[in-house]
Amino acid sequence: GESVGLHLPTLSVQEGDNSIINCAYSNSASDYFIWYKQESGKGPQFIIDIRSNMDKRQGQRVTVLLNKTVKHLSLQIAATQPGDSAVYFCADFFGNEKLTFGTGTRLTIIP
Amino acid sequence: SQTIHQWPATLVQPVGSPLSLECTVEGTSNPNLYWYRQAAGRGLQLLFYSVGIGQISSEVPQNLSASRPQDRQFILSSKKLLLSDSGFYLCAWTRTVNTGELFFGEGSRLTVL
Questions:
Q1: Minimal Cα distance from B105: which residue of A?
Q2: Most B-contacting residue of A53, A94, A97 (CB-CB within 10 A), to test interface
Q3: Who's near A16: CB < 8 A, 6+ residues apart?
Q4: SS3 readout for chain B
Q5: Contact A43, B107 (CB under 8 A)
Q6: With a cut of 70, which residues of chain A have pLDDT below it?
Q7: Is A43 in contact with B46 (Cβ distance < 8 A)?
Q8: pLDDT for res A2
Q9: What letter would DSSP give residue A52?
Q10: Dist CA A95 CA B59 (whole Å)
Q11: C-alpha A79: how far from its chain's center?
Q12: What would the pLDDT profile of B40-82 be if each residue is shown by its tens digit?
């Protein structure tokens, strides 16, 4: 079945540096992925998505890379700020109905 | 604009008691609706989703149930709570078009004692 997981549960980055959060998936049929950010005590918020016909997509300070060959995607955050501290989830939107989340990576920004 | 309301925000219940969490969406029609549970320090587990009134898909067998009595209302219930039911419950909606952008409610924190 489909599953989405992350390589590291925690990541600490110096303020101003770039952050890279990684995610692996197992279902070769998965073709649509989304990154979410969850701040403490709140529901997740959509950051950026990517479909399998692309290998890179950029947003404001964020870039998502998709490598279908190794079933891996990553979220890059440029010039991290204190407000970027949160848990980041990758998710697999399968069959246009079901969003399955990975376990999450807690990003801590060091001042 | 669309909004999602979820209540109660916090709930402390004894083992064996019933549960009802309610979620309503305003400003849209025929949304896909979702219930997720998040244990402390863990990821989000999909419990139920619904693509229409009376249509419920269950992802995890458990003592919880969901119902969608109206287009924009989604209810999570249990007849008898277990200790393992404690967690942060999140309702979410998305448009029925091809998007994985879910909009989440503020969550309901359930503690079963």
A1: A43
A2: A97
A3: A79, A80
A4: CCEEEEECCEEEECCCCCEEEEEEEECCCCCEEEEEEECCCCCEEEEEEEEECCEEEECCCCCEEEEEEECCEEEEEECCCCHHHCEEEEEEEECCCCCCCCEECCCEEEEEC
A5: yes
A6: 1-8, 96
A7: no
A8: 36
A9: T
A10: 14
A11: 17
A12: 777 899 999 999 999 999 988 679 999 999 999 999 999 999 9
User: Does residue B40 belong to the interface with chain A, where contact is any CB pair within 8 Å?
Assistant: no
* Residue A98, pLDDT score: 81
pLDDT for A8 equals 54
pLDDT of A1 reads 33
* Structure token digits, residue A41: 């005590």
Tell how far CA B69 is from the center of its chain: 14
Residue A4, pLDDT score: 54
Dihedral sign for Cα atoms in the order B9, B52, A52, B59: positive
Which residue among B44, B46, B92 sits closest to A89, beta carbon to beta carbon? B44
Q: Flag whether pLDDT at B100 surpasses 90.
A: no
pLDDT at B39 over 50: yes
Report DSSP state, residue A17.
S
Q: Name every residue whose Cβ is closer than 8 Å to that of residue A17 and which is 6 or more positions away in sequence.
A: A79, A80
The mean pLDDT value for B27-41 works out to: 90
A33: chain B residues, CB-CB within 8 Å: 100
User: Would strands B3-7 and B55-58 be described as parallel, antiparallel, or unpaired?
Assistant: unpaired
